[in-house]
Amino acid sequence: MAIVRSYGATKEVTGSCHVFEVGGVKIMIDCGMFQGEDEDKNEDAFYFDPASIDYLLITHAHLDHVGRIPKLVKEGFKGKIYATSATMDLAQIILMDSAKIMSEDFQTRYKKALRKGRETKLKKPLYEPLDVEKTFQTIEWTNPEYDKYYDLCEGVSFVYRNAGHILGSAFIELSYMQDSDSHTIVFSGDIGNDNGLVMPNLNKCDASQALYVETTYGNREHQPIDLTIKEFKDVIVETLNNHGNVLIPSFAVERTQELLCILRSMYESGELPKCKVFLDSPMATKATTVYRSYADELTNKCQENVKEDGSVFNFDSLVYTETPEASKGINDIKSRAIIIAGSGMCNGGRITHHFKHRIWDKRNAVVFVGFQAAGTLGREIVEGAKWINIFGEDIIVKASIHTINGLSAHADQDGILAWIRKIKDLKKVFLVHGEEESQKVFKNVLKEKLNLDAHIVGFKEKILLD
Question: Is 447 in the same domain as 303?
Answer without folding.
Answer: no
